[in-house]
């Protein structure tokens, strides 16, 4: 079943999280997607020290547990430090390793030792074939429950480009490949003290990645991206999500028929 990892970039407040979770759950059920709610309890890699980071580990996991309990959903969140792995694993179904941290051995080992599914984002500075070393760190820690994620590569200053052949190379490593459709349209630090983005490109890149044969999509979604506290310029507007997914899934079905 085609996977969807989606939700707001960061946990801004409980109301927004619950609203988004319920809405995407209904869409995912209608479109028959394997859905995991995504939101971060802490954005530890914000451009500016003054940027909003989230409610923190304890409060964030409480809210994620409410999402799971209220809507019978599975959840994914990212960790930034090794000690967070075990604590997060008590709530979420997938532990995500941020792109900037995907070479951090202790973080990978700690995540792997939880026994949970590990979703690793390929770093913006790594070649796809270099992810073999990341995979080996997780495997050698006793965990083969892995998904790999393409999210764009640095292309000069303040810009990313998606090399679609990277998806083919990642698939050669033998694990499901997810395409991060929203972070791939980021413009890192392009707005000075915050990151910019081009959300109008999300659907086009997602269709391209789907045509290659990805196993699922990662998308950050918000009711009103213009006022979102993190990554607003590249997030999908909640009211647009269903139609965008339907058009992407048309590509997925054609590819699978072939």
Q: How many whole angstroms does the radius of gyration measure? A: 17 Å
**Dominant shape:** globular
What's the architecture in CATH terms? Alpha-Beta Barrel
Sheet-strand content, in percent, reads 15-25%
CATH superfamily: Aldolase class I
Name the helicity range.
Answer: 25-40%
Distance between the termini: 16 Å
Q: CATH top level?
A: Alpha Beta
Kindly give the count of domains. 1
CATH topology: TIM Barrel
Number of strands: 13
Structural class: alpha/beta
Describe the largest sheet: 8 strands, parallel, barrel
Strand order of the largest sheet: 1-2-3-4-5-6-9-12
> Spans of 5+ residues with little confidence (pLDDT < 50)?
none
Q: Taking all residues together, what is the mean pLDDT?
A: 93
SS summary, helix count: 8
What is the ordering of alpha helices and beta strands? EHEHEHEHEHEEEHEEEHEEH
Descriptive overview:
The chain is 36% helix and 19% strand. It is globular. The mean pLDDT is 93. The protein is an alpha/beta fold and 258 residues long. It has one domain: Aldolase class I (TIM Barrel, Alpha-Beta Barrel), CATH 3.20.20.70. The strands form 3 sheets. An 8-stranded parallel beta barrel has the order 1-2-3-4-5-6-9-12, surrounded by 6 helices. Strands 7-8 form a two-stranded antiparallel ribbon. Strands 10-11 form a two-stranded antiparallel sheet.
């Amino acid at each position: 079943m085609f996977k969807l990892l989606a939700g707001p970039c960061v946990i801004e407040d409980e109301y927004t999280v619950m609203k988004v979770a319920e809405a995407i759950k209904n869409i995912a059920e209608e479109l028959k997607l394997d859905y995991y709610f995504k939101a971060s309890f802490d954005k530890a890699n914000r451009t500016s020290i003054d940027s909003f980071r989230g409610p923190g580990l304890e409060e964030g996991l409480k809210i994620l547990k409410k999402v799971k309990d209220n809507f019978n959903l599975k959840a994914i969140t990212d960790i930034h430090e090794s000690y967070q792995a075990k604590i997060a694993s008590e709530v979420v179904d997938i532990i995500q390793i941020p792109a900037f941290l995907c070479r951090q051995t202790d973080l990978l080992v700690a995540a792997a030792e939880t026994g949970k599914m590990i979703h690793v984002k390929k770093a913006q500075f790594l070649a796809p074939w270099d992810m073999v070393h990341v995979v080996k760190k997780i495997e050698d820690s006793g965990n083969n429950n892995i998904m790999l994620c393409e999210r764009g590569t640095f292309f000069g200053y303040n810009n990313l480009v998606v090399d679609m052949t990277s998806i083919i190379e990642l698939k050669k490593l033998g694990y499901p490949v997810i395409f991060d459709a929203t972070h791939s349209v980021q413009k890192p630090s392009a707005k000075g003290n915050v990151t910019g983005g081009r959300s109008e490109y999300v659907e086009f890149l997602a269709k391209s990645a789907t045509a290659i044969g990805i196993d699922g999509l990662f998308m950050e979604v918000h009711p009103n991206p213009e006022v979102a506290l993190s990554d607003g310029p590249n997030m999908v507007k909640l009211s647009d999500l269903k139609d965008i997914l339907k058009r992407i899934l048309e590509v997925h079905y054609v590819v699978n028929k072939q």
